[in-house]
Amino acid sequence: MRQWASILALCASIGLVSAAGQDVPSPPAPAQPPAAPQPAPPQTPAFRAGVELVSLNVTVTDSATRYVTDLEEIDFQIYEDGVKQDLTFFNRTNLPIALALLVDTSASMETRLPIAQEAAIGFARKLRPQDLAEVIDFDSRVIILQAFTNRASELEQAIRRTSAGGSTSMYNAVYIALKDLKKAVATNVEEIRRQAIVVMSDGEDTSSLLPFEEVLDLAKRSETAIYAIGLRTGEGSAASRGFKEAEFVLRQLAQQTGGRAFFPSQMSELASIYSQISDELSSQYTVGYTSKNGRRDGAWRRIVVRVNRPSTTARAKQGYFAPTR
What we know:
Layout: H1 2-13, E1 17-18, E2 53-62, E3 76-80, E4 83-85, E5 87-91, E6 97-104, H2 113-125, E7 132-138, E8 142-149, H3 152-160, H4 170-181, E9 194-201, H5 212-220, E10 224-230, H6 237-257, E11 260-262, H7 270-281, E12 285-290, E13 300-307, E14 312-315, E15 319-321
Helix pairs in contact: 2-3, 2-7, 4-5, 5-6
């Protein structure tokens, strides 16, 4: 009940504003002449979390943290609660991406925002025509400045409209981004689209209606990797305590979802960090398996991914919740 009460309160009070206007309806499909019956095409694995196929986006790096992109299916071993699983899907192509770009625009970001804007714009410009992205800024409220689009110019305009003021409601923003990503549709229904959130913030959450535990639970139930950028604050005792809380939150969101957390000490590092995230998203493997555990008990199942090449490390989400029916 607590979770539903929080969600209802969020919907009523969060102050969510969409700057994108009304949704544009899809054009009607042209009428097609009757065609002769065709044999049904072979089914492809359906990537639906916690139903049949368990899907993972896996990042593999070597000892120098360079991305390893030439592995084959035979090189991967997946373990669920210690039991080795049989891979039923493997893809190492550069798949389309759907991502939410979250920018902290609280008052404490005022002097940093111009540099942060330029770094985020550089990231948006690296997106490909087949990728989709949205821009969300958050302070006391959460505002969708640009709905999902593949136009870098629209993303850039949205980022430049951000301005600093207010408190920090990061949990609300992550929650809304996770919900919004469920509505991102690929141009072809047969495509598998990797999902990611890139969130930048400079301090602890001070005004969200949702608690961190509920947002983390939703993130763990999603197919979305969260990449977190924590901008370090001053050295004062209060600021340091607040940032330690924020650092814990950002690390948890990243680790549990297979993403990565960054904590630059200088604003000049931002552009490089966004570039690293872009490179990682284009260097991942997608693997899938049908769990050997047939129980539908809703329990958390821990996943470990290993590769058989020496001096390499594989990173993916840490587990998933089993289905309940």
